[in-house]
Automatic annotation (TrEMBL):
Residues 26-310 form the D-isomer specific 2-hydroxyacid dehydrogenase catalytic domain. The keyword Transferase does not apply. SUPFAM superfamilies: Formate/glycerate dehydrogenase catalytic domain-like, NAD(P)-binding Rossmann-fold domains. This is D-2-hydroxyacid dehydrogenase. Residues 108-285 form the D-isomer specific 2-hydroxyacid dehydrogenase NAD-binding domain. It holds the Pfam family 2-Hacid_dh. One of its GO terms (molecular function) is oxidoreductase activity, acting on the CH-OH group of donors, NAD or NADP as acceptor. Belongs to the D-isomer specific 2-hydroxyacid dehydrogenase family. The keyword NAD applies.
Length: 312
């Protein structure tokens, strides 16, 4: 069975690759594929894997042999799901593979902000070790997390993992989600308005949907505590990035820690990527080698299971 991997570099680097039985699956692996070459590279393949390469209605129309499309990730946003359904292509993602890695990255961003780690590391590189009267420490707000409140918007597996870690650091945790759910002993479930009003730190962990696109805008920010910290390791387009930048400029938000942007990589002049009150990492929270090995194993299991059911 012919299998094409369109853009496997990020998922596969430093791993053993996609663990499929070579006696059953002939894999063509591409580190990256320009949009104009996607259909040609899929060709007569019956299965394809994508990380960020888009699979559009035109792709499915041009690749009639295709029966399976797998993602190297949790999201489906790179695939036209309705077009896949019409073409008879089954789509499978890999949920839950990166829960702890993304939670770890989220807390890392928060700790970097609370401890002003990037600034202090830069001071040392510049030969500016702190003296007893150096204003660089007094003038840069550092704060303890213990006793402060974290608000988690989107209380799925990653949100719960972030909540547990924050609670271990002594934070009170509030959470809200679209579908009402009881608390779990870590977070207290509250309405969104209460969460925004009481949280010193707001962390976004909901999926990107029509409902959540641009959700964090000037109106929502106006309901947050003045000087709150905003974290987003979910999807960049959940933020109205111009509104967030304006809030950082005015001091309404203290800082933001981001691993995702609406445009990746960002263009010059992006309102948040280069903002002095933002710590931005390049969508790497899912990239520890153990996490990616798990991702590839689960993606391979998706295809193997699908093939074993006689659907290919």
């Amino acid at each position: 069975m012919k299998v094409v991997v369109l853009d496997g570099f990020l998922a596969g680097y430093g791993t053993g690759g996609l663990p499929l039985d070579p006696a059953r699956f002939a894999v063509e692996w591409y580190d990256d594929t320009p949009p104009g070459q996607i259909a040609a590279r899929i060709g007569d393949a019956e299965a394809v894997f994508t990380n960020r390469a888009p699979l559009t209605a035109e792709t499915f129309a041009a690749c009639p042999c295709l029966r399976f499309a797998g993602t190297f990730g949790t999201g489906y946003n790179m695939i036209d799901l309705e077009a896949a359904r019409r073409a008879g292509v089954t789509v499978r993602n890999v949920p839950s593979y990166s829960t702890m890695a993304v939670a770890q990255s989220t807390i890392s961003l928060l700790l970097s902000i609370a401890c002003a780690t990037p600034e202090h590391a830069r001071y040392v590189r510049e030969g500016r070790w702190v003296s007893p009267t150096d204003p660089q420490v007094a003038g840069r707000r550092m704060f303890e997390l213990a006793g402060r409140t974290l608000g988690v918007i989107g209380y799925g597996e990653i949100g719960r993992a972030v909540a547990k870690t924050a609670a271990a650091l002594g934070m009170e945790v509030l959470a809200c989600r679209r579908r009402p759910a009881p608390g779990d002993g870590t977070a207290r479930m509250v309405p969104l308005g209460e969460l925004l009003a009481k949280s010193d730190v707001v962390s976004i962990h909901c999926p990107l949907t029509d409902e959540t696109r641009g959700m964090v805008d000037a109106e929502m920010i106006s309901r947050m505590k003045p000087g709150a910290v905003l974290l987003n390791t979910a999807r960049g387009a959940i933020l109205n990035e111009r509104d967030v930048a304006d809030a950082l400029d005015s001091g309404r938000l203290y800082m933001a820690g981001l691993d995702v942007l609406s445009e990746e990589p960002p263009a010059p002049g992006h309102p948040l990527a280069f903002h002095p009150r933002v710590i931005c990492t390049p969508h790497v929270s899912w990239m520890p080698v153990e996490t990616r090995e798990r991702l590839l194993r689960l993606a391979a299991e998706n295809l193997t299971r699908f093939a074993a059911q006689g659907e290919l």
